[in-house]
Design goal:
The complex is a heterodimer of chains A (413) and B (454). By secondary structure, chain A is an alpha+beta fold. Chain A contains 19 helices and 21 strands. Chain A is 38% helix and 24% strand. In chain A, the strands form five sheets. In chain A, strands 2, 3, 4, 5, 6, 7, 8 and 9 form an eight-stranded mixed beta sheet that branches. Chain B has 454 residues and is an all-alpha fold. Chain B is 74% helix and 0% strand. Chain B is built from 20 helices and no strands. In chain B, α16 runs antiparallel to α18. In chain B, 51% of the residues are buried. The N terminus and C terminus of chain B are likely disordered. The chains are: A alpha+beta (413), B mainly alpha (454). At the A-B interface, β11, α3, α8 and α10 of A face α5 of B.
Amino acid sequence: MADEILFLTELLGLKVYDLKGRSLGFVKDAAIVPLIHPSRVDRFLVGGGWSWLTVRHDQVGQISLDGIYLKDEVLTPYHSDEYMLRLVRDLLDQQIIDGQGRKVVRVTDVTFKIQHETDEDALNIVDVDIGLRSIFRRLMQGAISRRWVRRLQEVIPPNSIHWENCSILEADPQRRLRLNVSNEILERMHPADLADIVEELTPEDREAIFETIDSEVAAEALSEVEPEIQASILESLETEKAAEIVEEMAPNEAADVLAELEEQTSEEILQEMEPEPKTEVEELLEYHESSAGGLMNTEYVALPQNSTVADAIQALRAHEEILEKLNTIFLVDANEQLTASVPLARLFTAAGATPLKDLAAENLIQVDVEEKQDRITEIFDKYNLLALPVVDEAGKLAGAITADEVISLLRAK
Amino acid sequence: MFKRFRYQTAIFLSVVGPGLITANVDNDSGGILTYSQAGAKYGYLPLWTLIPITLLLIVTQEMCSRMGAVTGKGLSDLIREEFGLRTTFFMMIALVLTNFTNVIAEFAGIASSLELFHISRYISVPICAIAVWLLVVRGTYRGVEKVFLFACSLYITYIISAFLLKPDWTEAAVNSLRPVVMFDTGYITMLIAMVGTSIAPWMQFYLQSAIVEKGVTAKEYVQSRIEVVVGCILTDVVAFFIIVACAAAIWSHGPKDINDAADAAIALKPFGNYASILFSAGLFNASFFAACILPLSTVFTVCEGLGFESGVDKRFHEAPVFYWMFTLLVVLGAGVILWPNFPLVKMILWSQVVNGVLLPVVLIYMVMLINKNGLMREWTNSRLYNAVAWVSVVIMIGLTLALASITVKQMVQSASAKPAAPVSRPLAQVQRDDSGGHAVKADIRESRGAHSLR
């Protein structure tokens, strides 16, 4: 009889037999070595008399609920090893990230698939179990027989995560490398989801993730994190890495984050930044956080007032990176004074030679950099805006506030 | 971690952090009535317990906040990670049962405070239960929290009252420093309840989560430590004045059990006609405040320990265990109160005893956790801390055993003395419950003389 699956809770306490069928002891833990194989159990740790023994995967003959039968009984004493992920010690009851469900979960059990080959069985991790069924299984294990536990648990719906979608948490950078922990799963997530996950982690785990993750992803995720946590993350990072992340952020968001930090830390980070984003951020830092200047974004598209639709499209092609959020183009005169704002969608119905001026919104609505945030939300609501240009004392275009900023503002209240 | 249980960055709450909030929730209905009962029945005698209780309160709360700041994890998270699922499971069962009695106590506090104004509990309790449920589930609780905290300043009335009542300050001072131990049920029960109400187990879980939620890190921890210590002292200063006020207003005219809110309100009698309004408002605020926090904190603790989705920003189907458990705690907690002739004040007092019985268990795990080098690095406990904690554990277990053995002995004695109690009592007697109370008191005063170790 060959069971196809085995649970970690069942594996623990399973008897290990030598070639003559004598019991050597009980399974105490099992380990994978991610650098060798991402999911195969590489070693079984067997507790017999005084010390633990290590059973390599190629020494195992047969595995079932009745026990583990060895085909090679030359066992070595157990030594701790930095490259091995011990399932009971390092995984069971610990938190991991579920990349599919985009949340932090706690491991209650692990499901293996028993792979039968010619003369040896191997265990492969298939799922990590969470939820009621696995809790039931663990509480009952030992109280009643393994087969009864299996029968009784059928009434509870299972709740598992595929092993490939799991990302384990390891704060120690050395051990991250040895355990081959990658950020691939995290980098594939939407930054906002990643931000939610990060908020639930401990400061050390946050730091480990931001230290190793791609700067661009880190920047996007960081802008979505709550202000207090943003600050503590940046403070915990190496200044160089922090500067790299801040550079990737939109200037207004970067300024918001830096404003949360202690003066000295934000100075240090600014020092490390490239000159161009640095000046932009520094200018924004001058404004009061809740004024129009503090809310505005300096990434906008402004064209000379006699430009045509064709000019506009050409300009947009050159700035692909901001297209995702862009919905308005601004027109300025020779003195950089704002003269009109053009809704982006109007470009699609106009011929290439049409002057942008003809497509401009009927009324030009703009605010001063000093404008208070309450008034700004009021204007957005009243005129049903998507973007609001901000001008400085001289009437020059300084930046634009977008609707998403206003939504965040209102939600924060 | 109270992920969604955010603390606003508003100035008010950045000054009043987790330590002070916890300190105020600490004096909930259980707190007020336990201290009232202690003062009314034993006068200035129990005051000596406040110094050791404060010390223990500081030690436990400081340990919790330190663990929260250093590990960034809640207490139930840590128990789960270090001691496994089975331990966590049984701990959570014990905690839920204990906290359930506390939830009942909070609703009992609501009911008895409003009964002072002749508002029937059949009206007040269901309305308040619904209000609690909506406030928390709709996430509007945070906004109201400030109101509760502000209303906590009602405790000042006890301080004023204590001075106006002209208590025997010398006796109060002497008794604050002179320990008296007596082996009778009432006294030991009161001791356990006093420790249990001041250092409620659920408070430790709550405080640690609040520290984590606030994002306090090991570096900024010193500031929180001050706040925790100040909070602890504040809690017990209030306790001191409640006991003194009750001793002066009630006990000096003859030791008395607190049987309802009206009895306890006598402590504020210098305020004349306003006494019952002030007491009622204070008790109502404290009970309602805790009735919001306590079930929520319980559910968070359990869900985190056992790994269920939690958070009021989740939808019902995303976090079914969380919502169901919260709803059940509130509905059942309020429902029990509606049982005809449910003894409100007795329930409140006994729930604090249950707290005291669970406390050493929680404390043992806390001390084991905080001494783990891998977890706490250079922040493990000093020897003095461990000594205080272990001594407290031993004392609390000792008190619990003493209580259990005395209770069993009395049950055996009464069983052999009286063959059978009358099966049904006439209705008229049920209403005059006072007479029964007096009989018990007489008993205790007698045994005090017999067993006193002074």
